[in-house]
């Protein structure tokens, strides 16, 4: 088990990322309010672009890049000046997307900032992987981290394809939707999942179980591209695509088996982890298992067709991965690292509120997606989802405030030392 105190530079970037999470939650409330009431000047689609792009860039990418830099690399690597420059580039481009998408959708400035964001992530991936290979990190961690950044780079095929099809007026085509699914898959099941598990394998697990972690890393990385073809089954593709998708589903079974094996191997290590962090981490890993099972089930036509044509279920899945798996794991990681040591109660309460709101949100979306089973008036869902969005905002706001207090305490302490 590896544990290191949070450095000042790392703390600054994590705090910024948590503030960005709160902003994402603000946009979520705005979107849910827009569904309930007419808001003049608010284009729902444009603000949805801002919400989703800033969630990926300003929150998850910034937080994962920060943790991967300052947790996986030795001080000689993470201390390079290039990393703050690249993180600044990610932040500026994410804020640029946040400020441009609401007012013009996909147009000149939003495309400029989106392109800048991709360039910054490519540069980060190139620099980081080179430093990671020199660091002699455990092979499972190296494989997962490198695979994560390769998936991120490959996901850019989606936006470039979308830009071309929008320019040539092909928005209502099969390929347009496949480009969206390609981007989402490589982000959620590639970049996010592999990045999270690179941190997990680095911090937890006895030395004697290194082979167990490596087998899991191999299975998870190998599954990324074949399972992409599961996303194409919604339009009755050619046989070759169905065959590759079938191979991907077999790999997902292997991933679940290796995941269970790895979870058993780290169980003794978990007794040394803060109980609250352990519980949140367990919820995150449960969300990973659920999302993997959901992926696996799409190989069956009846299930796949029902999911791909059901917007509430798709939204539920995206929130399950982004909030249930990735965000909760990042919360657990920060608790484990002692990031909230100066504001434990506030951070803990915020996370509890966030989790309750998230569960409420997911349950409502499942119910909304199954109208034949749950006979509930549509207005109940709309107000319930608005309430869940408010809960996510309150929880994220409390966590961000706790992070800000940590920065303030650290600054005050340093000022006293310098007097």
Automatic annotation (TrEMBL):
UniProt keyword list: Membrane, Transmembrane, Transmembrane helix
Transmembrane segments: 12-31, 46-70, 82-101, 107-129, 141-166, 186-204, 216-234, 240-259, 280-308, 314-332, 339-360, 380-404
Domain of life the protein comes from: Bacteria
Listed name of the protein: Uncharacterized protein
Source organism: Chitinophaga oryzae
């Amino acid at each position: 088990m590896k544990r290191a105190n949070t450095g000042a530079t790392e703390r600054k970037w994590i705090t910024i990322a948590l503030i960005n999470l709160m902003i994402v939650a603000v946009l979520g409330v705005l979107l849910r309010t827009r569904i309930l009431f007419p808001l003049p000047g608010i284009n729902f689609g444009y603000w949805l672009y801002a919400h989703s792009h800033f969630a990926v860039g300003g929150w998850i990418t910034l937080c994962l890049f920060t943790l991967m830099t300052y947790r996986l690399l030795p001080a000689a690597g993470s201390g390079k000046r290039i990393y703050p420059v690249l993180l600044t580039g990610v932040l500026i481009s994410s804020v640029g997307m946040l400020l441009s998408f609401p007012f013009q959708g996909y147009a000149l400035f939003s495309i400029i900032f989106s392109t800048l964001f991709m360039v910054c992530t490519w540069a980060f991936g190139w620099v980081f992987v080179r430093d990671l290979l020199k660091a002699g990190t455990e092979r499972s961690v190296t494989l997962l981290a490198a695979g994560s950044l390769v998936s991120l780079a490959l996901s850019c095929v989606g936006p470039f394809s979308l830009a071309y099809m929008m320019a040539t007026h092909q928005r209502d085509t099969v390929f347009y939707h496949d480009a969206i699914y390609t981007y989402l898959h490589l982000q959620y099941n590639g970049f996010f999942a592999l990045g999270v598990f690179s941190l997990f394998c680095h911090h937890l697990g006895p030395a004697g179980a290194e082979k167990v972690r490596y087998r899991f890393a191999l299975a998870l990385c190998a599954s990324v591209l074949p399972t992409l073809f599961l996303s194409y089954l919604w339009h009755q593709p050619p046989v070759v695509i169905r065959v590759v998708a079938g191979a991907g589903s077999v790999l997902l079974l292997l991933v679940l088996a290796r995941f269970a094996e790895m979870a058993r191997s780290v169980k003794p290590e978990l007794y040394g982890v803060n109980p609250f962090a352990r519980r949140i981490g367990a919820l995150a890993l449960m969300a990973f298992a659920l999302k993997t099972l959901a992926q696996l089930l799409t190989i069956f036509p009846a299930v796949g067709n029902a999911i791909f044509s059901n917007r509430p279920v798709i939204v539920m899945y995206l929130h399950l991965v982004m909030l249930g798996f990735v965000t909760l794991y990042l919360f657990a990681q920060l608790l484990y690292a002692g990031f909230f040591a100066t504001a434990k109660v506030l951070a803990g309460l915020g996370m509890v509120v966030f989790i309750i709101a998230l569960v409420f949100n997911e349950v409502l979306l499942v119910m909304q997606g199954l109208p034949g089973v749950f006979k509930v008036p549509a207005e109940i869902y709309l107000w319930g989802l608005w309430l869940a969005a408010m809960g996510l905002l309150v929880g994220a706001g409390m966590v961000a405030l706790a992070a800000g207090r940590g920065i303030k305490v650290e600054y005050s302490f340093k000022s006293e030392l310098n007097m």
